[in-house]
Design goal:
By secondary structure, the protein is mostly beta strands. It has a domain of about 260 residues. About 5% of the residues lie in helices and about 35% in strands. The chain contains three helices and 47 strands. The strands form five sheets. It has a 25-stranded parallel β-sheet that branches. Strand 1, helix 3 and strand 2 form a beta-alpha-beta unit. The chain is elongated and about 70 Å long.
Length: about 475
């Protein structure tokens, strides 16, 4: 293993090819030789443009600045204790299920739209012509769409339009009709969805439920995007513009290439929401090629037929705060989060738990050209079949006030640090991780660098069959 990457470029070549005849994605060929197998083609998938917005745009520190926080760091590891993280998850689930606790819905003063799909189409058409409108849809109503208008079941949104639903308001594509997505937000469009369910959309391109083109914007509030299908990217939502998902659920959507739940190459914010049980080839929950902010949310139980069950960050930046990434699976590599080439990722008060990889990196992977900081977080009970049960690191990784506990792999149960990687630990606990062969706590390839900084409180103990393998100064093997 020393000095070599465990991946093949063949996986990327197949997984990232936009030609529809190659959507089978990485189901053949080896994954064990060659560097940055997941890197090259991601940038070109389905024409999604890369926009490399710095992590600092969301207020998160760059990885190199994390060491400066030591002066203020508490002596106790992982200040955001697990019970707090569990509490956040319970709160998020309630919010994601559409429960608005302690708040009354404000009465809308919009234009009422009877429970009739044709009347909804006419109302949106008129709103576009008049420069925008707020439309109040009927409660306990399913607006059943039977044919496309433009490229979706409803007219393209080209002005500021708000669709207010009520209890059990659904917009759905009818079964056994031709394929089309539910909504497209085009240039100049600014769509807000309140208390609505978007379901049944299906397309042979991007955005099974909703497509947001460049110059468009989408905000979902207390809404559900579920059971939509895209042949390419973004089973629930595909966005090249600005997308804000608030107090909403994106669940049980499917895509053929990237982002089973959400695919974004623009600006994405997910707050107080759940992205769960989505399926794709790469990036089961979220695939972002631009900038992303995830706060107080759960990315859970998503799956990838090839790589990255939870979140894939490629060529841009991401901040994940007060959130959980749990129960995600990948048949290939990376159960939880991948920081791909040219990315910056900042994780704060995040729980990465119970993620499973069929090959490497149960919870978190950093590829060459990436920088990742993890602060006040838990990485626990994740599994990888080969290397890096908790973390696989191939570039710059900083861990501060973090616990890495109960992870499993063949090599590097807690952390696998590649020959190109530098892993720096401050006040971090690597405890009770298991390797089948070697490096229960940390496995450091020849040429890699691991800095434990034990004076800050870092400990590597109670790992099996040993605590460290390779050159790891201050680690009792």
């Amino acid at each position: 293993m020393a000095g070599s990457s465990p991946f093949t470029g063949k996986d990327v070549e197949i997984a990232m090819n936009h030609q529809r005849q190659e959507r089978e994605l990485c189901r053949s060929g080896s994954r064990r030789a060659g560097a940055r197998w997941w890197a090259v083609g991601l940038a070109g998938v389905a024409g999604l443009a890369l926009t490399a917005t710095a992590v600092g745009a969301f207020g998160g520190p760059a990885a190199g600045a994390v060491g400066g926080a030591l002066a203020a760091a508490d002596d106790q590891p992982g200040k955001s204790d697990r019970r707090t993280a569990e509490g956040h998850r319970t709160e998020r689930k309630a919010e994601a299920d559409g429960e608005v606790q302690g708040k009354k819905r404000e009465k809308s003063k919009g234009i009422p739209v009877p429970c009739d799909a044709d009347k909804l189409i006419a109302a949106i058409t008129l709103a576009n012509a008049r420069g925008g409108a707020t439309l109040d849809l009927a409660s306990k109503c399913t607006y059943l769409l039977t044919a496309p208008v433009d490229d979706a079941g409803l007219p393209d949104i080209t002005t500021p339009i708000t669709l207010n639903g009520g209890k059990h308001t659904v917009i759905e594509r009818a079964a056994a009709v031709e394929q089309f997505r539910i909504l497209t937000v085009d240039v100049g469009g600014d769509l807000t969805l309140n208390h609505l369910t978007i379901t049944g959309g299906q397309t042979d391109s991007d955005g099974g439920g909703i497509l947001v083109n460049t110059g468009g914007a989408l905000t979902t509030k207390h809404s559900t995007i579920t059971r939509n299908i895209a042949a390419d990217n973004g089973g629930g939502i595909a966005s090249e513009g600005t997308t804000l998902v608030k107090h909403s659920t994106v669940s049980r959507n499917t895509s053929g290439i990237l982002g089973g739940g959400i695919s974004s190459s623009g600006v994405l914010e997910v707050t107080d929401s759940g992205v769960r049980a989505n399926v794709t080839a790469a990036g089961g929950g979220v695939a972002t090629l631009g900038s992303a902010l995830v706060q107080r949310s759960a990315i859970s139980d998503n799956s990838a037929q090839d790589v990255v069950g939870g979140i894939i960050v490629n060529g841009g930046s991401a901040v994940v705060e007060d959130s959980s990434v749990s129960g995600n699976t990948a048949t290939g590599s990376v159960g939880g989060i991948l920081a791909n080439v040219g990315t910056q990722v900042y994780l704060s008060s995040v729980t990465l738990a119970d993620n499973v990889s069929g090959e490497l990196a149960g919870a978190l992977a950093t590829e060459t050209g990436s920088s990742v900081s993890v602060v006040d977080s838990f990485i626990e009970d994740n599994r990888a079949s080969t290397i890096g049960g908790g973390i696989y690191n191939a570039d710059e990784l900083t861990l501060l006030n973090t616990k890495i506990v109960g992870n499993q792999a063949d090599l590097g149960g807690g952390i696998y640090n590649a020959a190109t990687g530098t892993a720096t630990l401050y006040n971090t606990k690597v405890i009770k991780n298991l390797a089948v062969t070697d490096g229960g706590g940390i496995f450091n390839e020849a040429g890699g660098t691991v800095l434990l900084n034990p004076a800050t409180g870092t400990v590597v103990i109670k790992n099996r069959p040993n605590n460290c393998s390779g050159i790891v100064p201050s680690c009792a093997g």
